[in-house]
Request: fold
Amino acid sequence: GENVEQHPSTLSVQEGDSAVIKCTYSDSASNYFPWYKQELGKRPQLIIDIRSNVGEKKDQRIAVTLNKTAKHFSLHITETQPEDSAVYFCAASRPRAGNMLTFGGGTRLMVKP
Amino acid sequence: ETGVTQSPTHLIKTRGQQVTLRCSSQSGHNTVSWYQQALGQGPQFIFQYYREEENGRGNFPPRFSGLQFPNYSSELNVNALELDDSALYLCASSPRTSGSYEQFFGPGTRLTVL
Reply:
C-alpha cells in the first residue's frame, strides 16, 4: 500500500520568513495530494491540493509543488504569520480510490512573532 | 448547508467494552470515511462507506466495523476495546462525483480507553 513520509516533524520560523514542508510517497499510481492544517483541538482543514497533471499550484501565500518522477511534493508558505502556527499534514490517494487518503506523520509549525 | 458533525465529543470506556461513534455527513455528500488519529500522529484510514456498503478498508482488525444509513450518516463500532484504541476518531464526507477529491472532516470524537 501507499506510504507517505513527511519532514521535518517540527519547524520553527520567525514571522515573515518562509516555511517549507516536504513529503515523499511510495505509490506511483497516486494522483491526488492534499495538504491539511490542524489547529490544536480542531478538525483538519484543507488548505491546498494538487493533482498529478500539474507541477505547481499557488493560492496567495501558499504554494505546493509536485515532482512525479521523484515522488515527492512540498508545501511552501511565504511571509509566515503567527496564525500559521499549527500542525500540517500531507496526504496522497490513488485514482478511483474513493478519496481514501494516506497521511504523513505531520509537521508542527511554530511561527515566532 | 451544514458541515460534518460527530457525536459524542468525548468518550471514556474501559478495556473490553464496545463503543459506537456517529457521523452525519455534509449535505449532498454520499461517501463517508473514518480515520483514527493517535496523539501526535497523522490520521490513519479505517474504512469508507458508499451507498451503505463498505467501499475500502485500511489495516484495521475486524473488531472495527461500520454502517452507513440511507441518509448517508454513518456509525463506527469498535468491539473488545484495547488501550491502543485511545485516539481521536475523525469522519470525513465527500461527494462521489467524477473529479471531486476533497474530503471534509468532522470535529472528531476523542475516545479514551482505560
